[in-house]
Amino acid sequence: MSQSTLRGVELRLLEAAVAVADELHFGRAAERLGIAQPPLSQRIQRLERVLGIRLFDRDRQGVGLTTQGTAVVDAARRVLAEVDRLTTLADGLRTGVRGTLAVGAVGSAFYQALPELLGPVRQALPELELRVTEVESPEQVDALLSGELDVGFLRPPADRRLRVRTVWREPLVVAVPADHPLARRTSVDVTALADESIVFFPRHLGPGFWDQVGEAFRAEGLELSPVAEADHATTMLGLVSLAMGITIVPASARVLHLTGVRYLVLLPTRHLDLAVAVPRDAHGRGAAVDRFLDALPRVP
After folding, report:
1. What distance in Å separates the CA atoms of residue 12 and residue 118, rounded to the nearest whole number?
2. Per DSSP, which regions of the chain are E strands?
3. Within its chain, how far is the Cα of 63 from the centroid?
4. What is the pLDDT of residue 2?
5. Which pairs from 77-80 meet CB under 8 Å and 24+ separation?
6. pLDDT in tens, 114-149
7. What is the pLDDT of residue 90?
8. What is the residue-wise DSSP string for 124-168?
9. Which of 187, 179, 173, 174 is nearest to 246 (CA)?
């Protein structure tokens, strides 16, 4: 028997064989399939002709599987189970509850925001795989527009070609060495930082964050002029622990518990936003993106 002949076997013929094998009675098998008995008998006969073997023995005692029929029905069960799995997979991909999403996020979002934001998403969409990588805001734009990323978490403002929604907001805090005179305080005014050595990152790595801090300084007639730069907030905090200066970070950075670092509330209070971003034309990327966005918690 050729493979082309096997490809002509319809699923309903396999379903008929499994039903008869389970029931060992054509009448009950037909009722289970929701068809009359004559069409069921025709399906079994057709399958036997296609395969070239007898599947069932029929006599006055009833219906029984032949040895060859037992092997064929076992294989039919496996085929039907795979078809069920394929159907379930396709349904999940079509509706967005299954699949894989590439998610990019700024480094500081990993401290607290992402764990709290993605927790509800994983609960709502347990079969949707999230591949999360650290990507700073400027690089996220190109990655989102090229399709390298499906979803981004960045610091606004964002490129106009992106659709964004604020999903997290937290105050800024000042990190100082533990033996710094300011470390005895619980809060500090921006004006008290005028003569301090500021450690910060280059503006091009995160213009939204940088400008938020810069505006806080300008509002008090000061300029943000870092004496040292580091590419990541954790490195900035490391430099603070080495008493090489002070820095300004999101309040969630306190979860790092770095030795030799104290955190003070920045006054007047300034908040740093985190936004979820997708391309404005992301509709062609599947329902998974929409499911993901719907499952994200909303900012109060």
Report:
1. 42
2. 56-59, 62-65, 99-105, 128-134, 151-154, 162-177, 187-189, 199-200, 228-229, 247-250, 261-267, 271-279
3. 52
4. 42
5. 77/18, 79/11, 79/14, 80/11, 80/14, 80/15, 80/18
6. 999 999 999 999 988 999 999 999 899 999 999 999
7. 66
8. H-TTEEEEEEE--HHHHHHHHHHTS-SEEEEPSS--TTEEEEEEE
9. 174
Q: How remote is the C-alpha of 183 from its chain's centroid? A: 39
| pLDDT value, residue 4 | 40
- Taking the CA atoms of the chain, what radius of gyration do you get in angstroms? 32
Give yes or no for a cis peptide into 126 (omega within 30° of 0): no
Burial (Cβ within 10 Å: 0-12, 13-18, ≥19) of residue 32: middle
Query: What value does the mean pLDDT take over residues 96-100?
Result: 71
State pTM to two decimals: 0.72
Using alpha carbons, select from 130, 52, 144, 127 the residue that is nearest to residue 93.
Answer: 127
- H or E element, residue 90: helix 67-95
Measured distance CA(72)–CA(51) in Å, rounded: 9
- The Cα–Cα gap between 296 and 270 comes to 24
250: Cα separation from own chain's centroid: 23
Looking up tokens 């050595």, which residue turns up?
197
Domains of the chain in sequence order: 3-95 (1.10.10.10), 99-166+275-295 (3.40.190.10), 168-273 (3.40.190.290)
Query: Could you give phi then psi for residue 34, rounded to 5 degrees?
Result: 75, 30
For residues 154 and 125, is the Cβ–Cβ distance under 8 A? Answer: no
- Report the distance separating Cα 231 and Cα 235, nearest Å: 7
**Packing angle between helix 26-33 and helix 37-51, nearest 10 degrees?**
100
